[in-house]
Amino acid sequence: MTHYAITIHDLTKIYKGNKFVLNKFSAHALKGNLLGLIGPNGAGKSTLIHLIAGVIRPTTGMIQLSIQSSEKLAWVSQTTTLDWYLTVLDNVRLGARLGGLSVKESYHAAKQAMEILGIAEYSHTGVDELSGGQQRKVQIARALAQQADILILDEPTIGLDYKSSDLFIKFLQDLTKQGKTIIISSHDLTLLEKYIDHVWVLDNGLLKTDQNLSTLLQATNHSCKIDLVVDYEGALDDFFLSALQSKGFYIYNKKPLSVSCNEDIDTNEFIKSLLENVKISSIQSKKWISFRFITN
Amino acid sequence: MHKLLRINQGIKSNQIFSFNKWTTIFEYELLAFWATKGQVFNLLFLYPILNLLFFGVGISSFAPKDVSTFGTTNYLAFIFPGILGINIFRTFSHVIYRLTLDKRYGLQGLKIGAGTGILGYILGMFIVPTMICIIQACVVFMILIILSPPPLGVSITFY
Predict the structure, then answer these.
(1) Is A291 helix (H, G, I), strand (E, B) or coil?
(2) A60-66/A73-76 β-pairing
(3) pLDDT digits over B45-73, tens only?
(4) What is the pTM of this model?
(5) Domain count, chain A
(6) Is the domain of A211 the same as that of A135?
């Protein structure tokens, strides 16, 4: 029997001026899944998250959540949602208290969440004294302290360094193994690709893709990209670099040479031609999903 | 056992009042109030005393000495409701500020959405300032008794 944590049926949101932000969105989220919500800016991701969190009201449609009560749903807003009067500990503890924990339990849950996010040392610091990334961590810790069954995170990795983001998403993946359902909206596809089970792709308020990640990667092979970072000794001339560009390589950086290309381009040929010009010390490659398939 | 929770009306359709969550909102308002310790003293004691001194003792020196000007009530008793009004206005302005901050920074949605309910949220936000106003009233009342002509307190009559 299939267990759905979230069932969305014909969800439509129209803002003033008859602007469709979401148009007849219907989908399911399986219990225990880490679901990636991706799409370009203005696609309707945040609106969808606010609707699921129950913060705003849909124009039409329905959302069903398989939870005991609304306190079993935690969400992290894209904007900074903190009580500026309070310390880090009290802000994090708010999640636990709203999650139904007693005062004593809330201290324990908050400390655990802060340790996971690496902000335990700032317990008694005012949130206004923290950096943007640390404030983000406080918000995430508050959601974790709520001990909810469904977690919805709107671009939680904004402001976090790569290592923290990676550790955090990996931790979320571990949480899904405990039966929690997590929806995460992010533009960091490289990071999402490593951990998510399922993907919803939104564009212009429409659900373009609702698939298992592995199925999606197979189906959209043409839209995958490869990043190559080459460390080399010597110098590359402009003629070589412009030749690379004409072959479909996008150059981010000259030294170390950082390029991106579509998956169908032969990267072996690129490495051969590079070897003719310089001595290569190391090569790193990474395949990632391109936003291109959203608009295709 | 999990049940299906249907959301189709946004936060406005959620539970109206939850006692547990109401106490959380109250607890956090108390924490926020306590976080500004200087303000605790100012709001509870300094502002009521200053208002009383300014409007009561200061301005009363310009008032005619004949108590019959104010009927059977002496001047200090006469201004008591006014002083309370000023204090209530100042205290509740702070709540409006807190409510605006909550709305602006999305905490309102978070608190109400977690099952506090609109009534629980509003009650939770207003209980601390109400307590402050009661304490202020007591402070003002005690000072009035001390400053009023004898017999103490007897002269305070409201119409």
Answers:
(1) coil
(2) unpaired
(3) 888 888 877 777 677 666 665 544 455 66
(4) 0.76
(5) 2
(6) yes
Please give the backbone phi and psi of residue A57, each rounded to the nearest 5 degrees, phi first.
-100, 135
Residue A146, classified by CB atoms within 10 Å of its CB into exposed (0-12), middle (13-18) or buried (19+), is buried
The radius of gyration of chain A from alpha carbons, rounded to an integer in Å, stands at 22
Predicted confidence at residue B104, as pLDDT, reads 85
Q: Are both A203 and A58 inside the same structural domain?
A: yes
Residue A48 is predicted with a pLDDT of 93
* Interface predicted TM-score of the whole assembly (ipTM), two decimals: 0.76
Domain boundary among A191, A219, A247: A219
Judge contact between A3 and A30, C-beta under 8 A: yes
Number of H helices, E strands in chain B: 7, 1
Q: Can you give the pLDDT at residue A219? A: 67
Do B10 and A82 count as a contact with CB atoms less than 8 A apart? no
Q: Judging by beta carbons within 10 Å of its beta carbon (0-12, 13-18, 19+), is residue B141 exposed, middle or buried?
A: middle
What is the interface size between A and B, counted as CB pairs within 8 Å? 116
Tell me which residue in B5, B20, B113 faces A100 most closely, judged by beta carbons.
B20
Q: Are residues A158 and A35 in the same domain?
A: yes
List the A279-289 sheet strands across, edge first: A250-253, A257-262, A224-233, A279-289
CB A82 within 8 A of CB B35: no
Residues 6+ away with beta carbon under 8 Å from B9: A57
User: What CATH number has the domain bearing residue A45?
Assistant: 3.40.50.300
Report the distance separating Cα B139 and Cα B48, nearest Å.
Answer: 7
The answer to which of A11-25, A37-51, A250-264, B9-23 has the lowest mean pLDDT is B9-23
Sign of CA dihedral A189, A190, A192, A196: positive
CB contact under 8 Å between B31 and A86, yes or no, is: yes
Residue range of the domain that includes A248: 223-295
Phi, psi of A72 (to 5 degrees): -90, 10
Cα–Cα distance measured from residue A189 to residue A202, given in angstroms and rounded to the nearest whole number: 14
Beta-carbon separation of A66 and B2 below 8 A: yes
Per the listing, tokens 């709001």 go with B43
